[in-house]
Amino acid sequence: MEIIIVKSKIKEVVGDCNISKDFFESLNEVAYLNLKHTEEKAKANGRKTVQAKDLFVAEHVEAPMLIVKSKLKNVISGYNVSGNMAEGLNQLIVRIIKEAVLTAKANNRKTVRSIDL
User: Fold this and answer.
1) Is residue 72 domain-resident?
2) Alpha helix segments (H runs only) across the chain
3) What is the domain-level CATH number for residue 93?
4) Crossing angle of helices 21-44/85-106, nearest 10°?
């Protein structure tokens, strides 16, 4: 599976928590699956371009860019990728990470694990 998340940037989002190896792998898989889902939405709408609106993204959150933009085209095959797709995916992944951190803290842990996703 293509690595589309910058592992070293995750620490900027999790703050004072630690990150387990399985968390990074699972998070990358979540990002990958969300990209594949955008292909389905674009196809269902008769489009040849995947767009950020194909992802569910709420309000904008300031965060470091975790997504390797150049890798998106490798994951999305047969479709064009809109200019805002990387930012939309980044927003979604940051939101998922923040929720995972809250879950870890609620379970009295300082290490974020894949089970927190």
Assistant:
1) yes
2) 7-14, 21-44, 69-75, 85-106
3) 1.10.20.10
4) 140
Burial of 62 (0-12, 13-18, 19+ CB in 10 A): exposed
Q: Is residue 25 one of the residues assigned to a domain?
A: yes
Give the pTM.
0.86
C-alpha to C-alpha distance for 80 and 4, rounded to whole angstroms: 17
| Local confidence band at 59 (pLDDT 50, 70, 90 cut-offs) | low
Residue 44: Cβ within 10 Å count: 9
Work out the average pLDDT over 26-52.
Answer: 91
The answer to whether position 2 is within a domain reads no
Residue 47 CB-density burial (10 A; 0-12 exposed, 13-18 middle, 19+ buried): middle
Q: Is the pLDDT of residue 60 over 80?
A: no
Q: Whole domain around residue 74: which residue ranges?
A: 7-116
Take residue 113 and report the two structure tokens written for it: 């694990």
Q: Each residue of 47-56: pLDDT tens digit?
A: 999 988 888 7
Q: Is 1 within the bounds of a domain?
A: no
What total of structural domains would you count in the chain?
A: 1
